[in-house]
Design a protein that fits this description.
Elements: H1 2-13, H2 20-29, H3 39-53, E1 61-67, E2 75-79, H4 93-101, E3 106-109, H5 117-120, E4 126-130, H6 133-141, E5 147-149, E6 161-166, H7 177-190, E7 191-202, E8 209-218, E9 221-222, E10 226-231, H8 233-242, E11 245-255, E12 259-268
Parallel strand pairs: 3-4, 3-6, 4-5, 6-7
Antiparallel strand pairs: 1-2, 1-8, 7-12, 8-9, 8-10, 11-12
Helix pairs in contact: 3-6
Amino acid sequence: MQDRVSVVHRIFTELFSVPNDVFRNIFRLLRFVVRRPTQKSMDFFGRALRNYQNGDKTSKFSYHQNCIRKRYDGIKFDIDLGRYFRLYEDLNRLEKKMIGLIHDKTLDIGCNTGYYIKNLMEHGEVVGLDISGEIIQIAHENGLFNCYKGDIFDYQFDRKFDTITLFESELAITGSIRHLKKLLRKLKSILKSEGQVLAIIRHIHTLKYWNVVYTQEYQGKIGTPFRCCYVNISYLTHIARKLGYRVEILDKEMIGKNTLLFLIMLVNQ
């Protein structure tokens, strides 16, 4: 596996030196070698967040996106690192509504720098989990010692939770439908009876699901590619019900012209 990742990484270090048609063909092959986000890929992101916290507000953090479909659809876009240090008043309507729905013992998956954690703590006991040690260190530096480094698929919990939160389309980190089902089974095993999973998901309109490969770029360096899996709301509802959840669609909001977000609740029956 390490050799396979190394090959992919070498390819992307030469990202800007290959002809466009070769680049497109490489992207078509990525779905066969690229996994869901790993500690290595998220630590790359974490180093950019640390630089931002330390005062570097000018360096751009970019994603190269490829939609694995019948045609190449590569897009490069920049993200605002400041969004990962937002205060409550900066959150969108769905995020604020989701925070208001949590209760008692809560697990926040993909807690990042902990920018939701302080608000969640107003509603009960909270534990945050993120795969990146770099990012968790930032959370600790900001006084959030209830955030821990770990992979949700492997992490062993000593308690069960009343609420599990996945902000920022975190269900997509599963990278595939197989791992999405695996994650939902894991969440069910650590939820109390009638416990809830609250998630904001990016809806896919025309397909059951949509695999997207992302490659990070920061300060002239290229990160390890990783794959995300976005799911149609109806298909997600179908999967969750088969796994024993009661599904409620609580709200939705259009972001920009093309992105429809849903706030959903999965109840452990």
